[in-house]
Amino acid sequence: MNEKYLFIETFGCQMNVNDSERIVTMLADLGYRPTTVPADADMILLNTCSVRGGAEEKVYKRLSHYRSLKKAHSGLILGVGGCVAQQEGDHLLQKFPFLDLVFGTHNLHLLPDMVRGAEKGERRCETAFIDNDQRLDLFPPVKGASRLSRFVTVMQGCDNFCSYCIVPYVRGREISRRAADILGEVRQLADEGVQEVVLLGQNVNSYGLKSANEPTFAQLIRQVAGVEGIRRVRFTTSHPKDMSDELIACFADVPKLCGQVHLPAQSGSDVMLSRMNRGYSRAAYLDRIRALKAARPGIAITGDMIVGFPGESEADFEQTLTLMEEVRYADLFLFVYSARPGTKAAELPEELSREQKVERLERLLALQRRITLEINRSYLGTLQELLVEGEGKRPGQVSGKAESGRIVNFPGDPAQIGSFVTVRIVAAYQNSLLGELAQNP
């Protein structure tokens, strides 16, 4: 079999990253090896995201860019997958005559057959949703794991239908994988040297709620933590309304579960939360935050906020600012609201100008930068256990991730990559920490 090269450009969430890893596994059987250089590729795939506005335009620009490569390489296969593919479907093939493949979020399993057809000159689009019984068996394991930390998908889809969100329309309804399959994948990863797993789903803490004789998410975490060789467990992304007492208790008594949680609030205003159809109040959200901090003192909390949702007043915006001060997020992903076609919020009139939204975003960014730096500085002088994952920012440094998720660079040797070390934090910056190996930890 002749060796061919595959370049994947991945946009958006961790789910897309995980899907791209699975694509590499599936296409390896057809002779494709990954490359980081598009010009060297025999196939280029764009794995896309449509959660934020402008996603389609970004994909269109990338396709136009890659068209020149296709002109220079007549056999080059060009494809689009992910959420934009799910949303646009055949329209992409019509708009871009040089495009060969369009595959939706439920159709990764068809990709090898689609590629065989494309190699013969066939153009094809597959974006049909499939039923849950079929979906349960369509999670091919990632082979050839080289990283120390890996994603493990435990569920897909979302049933919440937040008024601004397109995910249920492009990812489908929630389905949880069988626990036995998840644990089998985790054991395989551990056998390959993976030491940290990140349990992944659009609404990961609703795992198992609709499945008979399957564990709850909290029970699943305890089972994963019991796999020999796995030293750290993380999960993302959580919905506040499903952050149960049982799950919070895991932070108190499962040592392998890292002290970090991503819990998007999206707004600090009850009026906005109701319009967003989030299913909780500000008070209920803060109750979950207090419970998490009690279960694991020092837990690092990250989240998402939307600025300029339709009808957001200055008072609503101020409540988001005060929520940020009260929670004190270690990191916060901030987004200007953009209407997504087909969502309920897209029907609402927008009262704020783009300039007003950007001005509010800048105020949130300034506040979060201050809080993040203050939190990073609170680590000064502390001892942190790191999983060393690669080389650092500067020559002579290596880099690792603390239990809190903080990135720490320190003077070290590449031979330490893959090991756990203890460092003392000696400097704190906006986006990282600097450490030195502790002599007597």
UniProtKB/TrEMBL annotation:
User: Binding residues for [4Fe-4S] cluster 2, per the UniProt record?
Assistant: 158, 162, 165
Alphabetized, the UniProt keywords read: 4Fe-4S, Cytoplasm, Iron, Iron-sulfur, Metal-binding, S-adenosyl-L-methionine, Transferase, tRNA processing
* Reactions catalysed, as given in the entry: N(6)-dimethylallyladenosine(37) in tRNA + (sulfur carrier)-SH + AH2 + 2 S-adenosyl-L-methionine = 2-methylsulfanyl-N(6)-dimethylallyladenosine(37) in tRNA + (sulfur carrier)-H + 5'-deoxyadenosine + L-methionine + A + S-adenosyl-L-homocysteine + 2 H(+)
Name the InterPro entries on file: Elp3/MiaA/NifB-like_rSAM (IPR006638), Methylthiotransferase (IPR005839), Methylthiotransferase_CS (IPR020612), Methylthiotransferase_N (IPR013848), Methylthiotransferase_N_sf (IPR038135), MiaB_methiolase (IPR006463), rSAM (IPR007197), rSAM_horseshoe (IPR023404)
The record's section on SMART domains has: Elp3
Tell where it localizes.
Cytoplasm
PROSITE patterns xrefs = MTTASE_N, MTTASE_RADICAL, RADICAL_SAM, TRAM
Where [4Fe-4S] cluster 1 binds, per the record, is at 13, 49, 83
Cofactor note as given: Binds 2 [4Fe-4S] clusters. One cluster is coordinated with 3 cysteines and an exchangeable S-adenosyl-L-methionine.
- Specify the enzyme's EC class, one word: transferase
A Pfam family the protein falls into = Radical_SAM
Q: Using the record's annotation, list all stretches that form the Radical SAM core domain.
A: 144-374
In this chain the MTTase N-terminal domain maps to 4-120
At the top level, the lineage of the source is Bacteria
Sample GO molecular function, one term: 4 iron, 4 sulfur cluster binding
Residue limits of the TRAM domain? 377-439
What is known about its subunit structure? Answer: Monomer.
Q: What is this protein called?
A: tRNA-2-methylthio-N(6)-dimethylallyladenosine synthase
Q: Which organism is it from?
A: Oryzomonas japonica
